[in-house]
Amino acid sequence: MGCLIKLLLLPFYLVYGMCVFIVEIVKAIFKSIDNHDKNNFTPVPPVPSGIPSMITDGHKYEYFVAEYLRRTGYSQVTVTRGSNDYGIDVLATKDGIRYAVQCKYYSSPVNLKAVQEAVAGAPYYGCSVAMVVTNNTFTKSAVTLANANGVILLPNVNRLPQIIYEQKPEIINEQKPKKINKQKWIIIAVFYFISIIAFIGLYYSGLDGKELFIYIIVETLILAILVIIDLVKYRKHQ
């Protein structure tokens, strides 16, 4: 009697095994999608709020000033060589005017020597305007000399323009993963539901074990092929 019950339940065991197989494949697919969603986006770090965290010496401050000038509308911004720069650290252009910039990263106010260096170095680079930029302030004598020679002084340059911080971080490789075709999976589910009904009918119609085994293998291979095709198409769109 026990053997007869097991025999009668055999198709349901096989159907259960096929359903578990299908569920595991679907779970693997959606796990792959979740992992892709987590790893697909790479945000650019926000711009630092000021120089304390990014500037440690005068040379790095020159590059900071160069970026500051770019952000404030200057073009053709370049940093000169570290040695024999004739007192000019950065070159920039705005509205057709070429600027020679002297950068001073000081812990105290900048004196008139920096203004003198800027005035002397500007003609060497073919610049018509000299500029001195510092993270600090200028002494009264430096301001007087700058006014007499038409030198632009920019004190307290220790932060990039505020508009930069109001911008949202840029996203790299922004690409939404291709959604799995729901209609295709509905068709597959219907196909296997019909196959299960057909399998039960064939089982009780007198097919031998070998024929039923071949039937199960064919059905499983068809499912595997459909799943592989869907995964390949999905990966091509990543």
Automatic annotation (TrEMBL):
- Could you list the residue ranges that cross the membrane? 12-30, 185-206, 212-232
Coiled-coil annotation reads: none
List the keywords (alphabetical): Endonuclease, Hydrolase, Membrane, Nuclease, Transmembrane, Transmembrane helix
- Pfam families from the UniProt entry: Mrr_cat
Q: Which residues form the Restriction endonuclease type IV Mrr domain?
A: 57-154
GO terms of biological process kind: DNA restriction-modification system
Q: Which GO terms describe its molecular function?
A: DNA binding; restriction endodeoxyribonuclease activity
Instruction: Please tell me whether the keyword Transmembrane is annotated for this protein.
Output: yes
By its UniProt entry, which PANTHER family does this protein fall under? MRR RESTRICTION SYSTEM PROTEIN, SLL1429 PROTEIN
Q: What is this protein called?
A: Restriction endonuclease
Organism whose genome encodes this protein: Candidatus Eubacterium faecipullorum
